[in-house]
Amino acid sequence: MTRLISVGVMWIILILLPWWLPMIGGYTALGSKVLIYAIATMGLNLVLGFTGGLSFGQAAYFGLGAYGAGMTLKYLALSTPLAILIGTLVGGLAATILGPLVMRRRGIYFAMITIAIGQLFYFVMVRWNNVTGGEDGLAGFGRQDIHLGPAVIPISSSGDAFYYLVLLGFTVAVAIMWVILQSPLGHTWVAIRENRRRMEFLGIRVERYVWAAFAIAGFITAFAGTLNAMLFNFTSPQDLHWILSGNFVIMIILGGMRSFFGPLIGVIIFVVAQDYLSSVTGNWMTFIGMIFVCIVLLFPRGVLGIFNRRAEAI
Amino acid sequence: MSVAATEEPVRTMPPAAAQAPKTPFLRMDNVSRHFGSLKAVDGVSFEMHAGEMRAVIGPNGAGKTTFFNLISGLLPPTSGQVIFEGENITEQPIVKRVAKGIIRTFQITEILPDLSVFENIRVGVETAEKLNSKPWISRSARAAVNDRVAELMKIVNLTGKANRTVGELAHGDQRVVEVAVALSGRPRLLLLDEPTAGMGDTETDHMVDLIRRLHQDQNMSILFIEHDMDIVFGIAQHITVLDQGRVLADGTPDAISNDPKVRAAYLGSIE
User: Fold this and answer.
1) What ipTM was estimated for this complex?
2) A187 close to B131: Cβ distance less than 8 angstroms
C-alpha cells in the first residue's frame, strides 16, 4: 500500500515536472535526460542487480540504439516511431546475438568481455567515418512530430511535448520490467544471482537465463538510446564508450542495485550533480567521485537500500 | 508415476519389513573416478531398488561425496557406467538427471541466503512446474504455485517461518529449507549428503523424522550419507559401506553390524 502511494506520488511529480523544474532553476530537457538514463540503468540493472552479471559495457547498446535512431532519421525516413523501433531492434538484437559470448562468463570475466564488446562498437562508430560521422558524431537529423490521425504531437519544436513522450516510454519500460521481475523468469534471475549452483541442481540451464537477462536489458537500454539521440538530435561515439558504461554502473550503485527504483534515484543524484557542478567547475568529476565515496560509505546498499533492507522484496 | 502403482500394497506393511519392489532403479557398474593418482572412487558396483531407504557410510575420505557427485552428475566418472531406471545416464549433464528426478542436497548447505523461506521454495516449485522462462504469470498459475509452496512448507514444518530470510535462520532450519527446495522438484531419487551435519539434538530429531516421513508417506527412494550411526541404523533399510573408494560391505543393518570386516575397518574405530 505504501509502495502504491509512493509510486503514485512519484508519477504526479514526474507529470508536473515541466512546471516545477524551471522554477527551481532547472530545465525540462534535464528531466528528459534523467528519465532516459533511468530507463537505461533500470534495464542494465536487470543484469547487474537482479541476475548478478557484471555488465560493464552496457553503453554499447545505448549507443547502438542512438545511432540506429539517428541514422534512420537521417538516411531512411522522417519518422520518430520508426526511428525508435529500428534503434531499439538494432541495439537489442546486438545484445541478443552477442549474449552467448557473455553468458558463460562469470564475475570479472563477464565484466571484461562486456567491456571488450562495448569498445568494439565504439571503434566501429569512430572508424566508419562517412556514415557515422566518426569522432565528430552523428548530426544532421532531427526528431519528427508524431501524427496520430488528425492530431499532431509537436515533439520537434516543444521540449515539453518530447518530455511527455519520454515519460510515456519510461512508464512502459518500467511496467514491462516490473511484470518480468514478478514473474517466474524474474524469480529465476534473482535465484541465479543468489546461488548459481543451487539453480543448476534444480535442473536449470543457468546460461540461458543469463542470456535472456542480457538480451532484454539490451533492448531496454537501446530504447533509452533512441530517445537520447532524439533529445539532443545528435549522438557521438561517447554514447558507446566504456566511460558511459561505468557511469551507468556508478548511478546504479548510488541508488541501490537491489531495489527496483534504485537506479532512478542514482541517476537523479548523478545527472543533477553533473549538470550543476559542471556549470561551476571544470573539475566536476572530482566532486562526483566524492559524492560517490560518501554514499558508498553511508549507504552500502545504495540510497534506496536503507528503505528496504530486504531489497529483494522489490 | 510407476511407483504409484505399487504404493498401496507396500503401505499396508510396516516399512522396515516392506519388500522393496524389485525393479532395477539405480545401478552403477564398476564405476571409478580418479583425481590424478588418487582413486576417490575405485571400481564401485552398486544396486538400489525403488522405494528403498539406503545409507552410505564410511570413514572420511572413503569417497562418499564423490560417489554422490557421480550419481548427480557433478562429475563424470573416469570409467564405468551409471544406469537409472534402465537408462544409461553416465554422460548426461546435471539438468537431464534432475529432469529424471535425481535431486540432491549438499554437505555444505546450498540455499538462496538473501531470500525468504517462501521465495527459496517458490523458485523450486516454479522450476518443477517448468515456469522459469515465463516473463509473466497468470493469477491462477501464481495461486497454484503458492499453494504448492504452502504444502511443502507444511511437510517440512516451516509454515511459521515463511517470511524469514533464510540466511538468518538457524543452521538446522537452513538445511530443512534445502530439503524442501529439493522436494519441490518431486524427486524420484533423493540424495542427501550428511543431512544432519552440524545440527543439535532437537534439530537432528526433526530432520530424521522428516526423512522417515518422506519415505513412509511418499514411498520416496532416499540415498543418504551420514556419520551418525544411531541415525543410520535407526532408519536405513540397507547400508553400503565405502572404504578407500571401494565397497567394503553392502547389506541390511543387521548384516553390516555383524560384518567382521566392517567392524575392523570402521565401526570399531568409532566406538
Assistant:
1) 0.84
2) no
